[in-house]
From TrEMBL, chain A:
Taxonomic classification: Bacteria, Bacillati, Actinomycetota, Actinomycetes, Kitasatosporales
Record's function text: Ferredoxins are iron-sulfur proteins that transfer electrons in a wide variety of metabolic reactions.
Keyword presence, Iron-sulfur: yes
InterPro entries: 3Fe4S_ferredoxin, 4Fe4S_Fe-S-bd, Divergent_4Fe-4S_mono-cluster, Fe-S_cluster_ET
Name under which the protein is recorded: Ferredoxin
Gene Ontology terms for molecular function: 3 iron, 4 sulfur cluster binding; electron transfer activity; iron ion binding
Source organism of this protein record: Streptomyces bathyalis
Cofactor(s) required, per the database record: [3Fe-4S] cluster
UniProtKB/TrEMBL annotation, chain B:
Residue ranges crossing the lipid bilayer per the database entry: none
Name the record gives this protein: Cytochrome P450
Coiled coil: none
Keywords annotated in UniProt: Heme, Iron, Metal-binding, Monooxygenase, Oxidoreductase
Region: Disordered, residue numbers: 1-35
InterPro entries for the chain: Cyt_P450, Cyt_P450_B, Cyt_P450_CS, Cyt_P450_sf
Family: Belongs to the cytochrome P450 family.
Matching Pfam families: p450 (PF00067)
SUPFAM superfamilies in alphabetical order: Cytochrome P450
One of the record's GO molecular function terms: monooxygenase activity
Amino acid sequence: MRIVADTTRCVGAGQCVLSEPSVFDQDEEDGTVLVLVERPAEGGLDGVREAVGTCPSQALSLTED
Amino acid sequence: MTSDQPTVTLPVPRTCPFSPPAEYERMRENSPVSRVGLPGGRTAWALTRHEDVRAMLADPRFSADRTRPGFPVLAEGQQQLAARFKLSLISMDPPEHGPARRAVVGEFTVKRMAALRPRIQQIVDEHVDALLAGPRPADLVRSLSLPVPSLVICELLGVPYADHDFFQSRSARLLRRTEPVASREQARDELRTYLDALVTQKEKDPSDDLLGRQVLKQRETGRGDHEDLVSLAVLLLIAGHETTANMISLGTLALLEHPGERSRLGEDPDAMPEAVEELLRYFSIVDAVTSRVATEDVEIGGVLIRAGEGVVGLGNSANHDPGVFSRPGELDIGRGDRHHVAFGFGAHQCLGQNLARMELEMVFETLFRRVPGLRLAAPVDELPFKDDSNIYGLYELPVTW
């Protein structure tokens, strides 16, 4: 599974960092999402799914490729 | 099933301080997207389901501009209060909103907030010291709930805390729906004049604080002007202390009233972040700030909302939707669900949410650790709840130990 982050939609709420700090961070200047691990291991996907579900601007998705 | 004849008028008072109004449950079951009356005789749509509130708040066809005709007005004079000055972030739409939010949201990242932790702990400790050294009973609102977030936002923004009596009283008046419009306008003008002078000072000599850094950023990017910065300062100063202060009071009260939950928390300090999320969901203190006006015809929850019609996303109802939160009326600090809309949803979701989370965690942890005998000094049904304010909370919370 690969994380797709649309930084043009991101509003820097930081919900993803709360969900999975080992996978997400925020740009220091404008707060937008930084994906640290594009393909997280299967075991770490729960936090990533929570991040996708709580993202207020719906900027995150998971794809199968 | 929907009806054009509203049977409910917003805002609906809470009859129990720990529950949403009973009308919300009836609306959610019978007519989840329904016409409601507004003060002054106008009407709007009210959304009561979690799914619909989130869908509406994430949909760019709904405008957050409080000055637009049709925007739901929940207190007399609200539009007149929003007009005349440049809109703040809370009222901006695309394309202005995105760049304006990005210019400031870097100040509120999770990491930036974590870096404030030692200073906030010091502020909390000093106030708990003073509480313990002072007379019993004490009013927790005055001794802890209000001063802690107020001091924190002042230091972050670069506003002199010595002026706190001035801006706290103006903020409270501005938010009180029952306050005459002229008095609310005066409070707004005085607050604005005060912050206008402060921003002017920072423009002459940019200090190392949020407002000073925004001055430098404006110069660097060429985006935004003096009026934008004053509007931002007004918004952040009010939002930064009123909301968190009320959650400190209500959260403390809820934990005192639910000793089982409180002892669960005492046994496992790591449970605090989840407990804070649950308290935010449970009280949903900014129930109707998530209002919008449709700019096009949009279908929400199977109901056609026409362009120009106002919509109120009732956060307190969404956060008690049993389809999303099982046994929603129960305070369960281990619920572990951050899907609530207590901070709103969509592009306008609370800018300071991670500051609020951290302050709440640190205040509850410190207060209950250092004052283990804390208890209420008045019966719950005699406490003065803020039923007349746009932000729910407590005017006073008498405690002893």
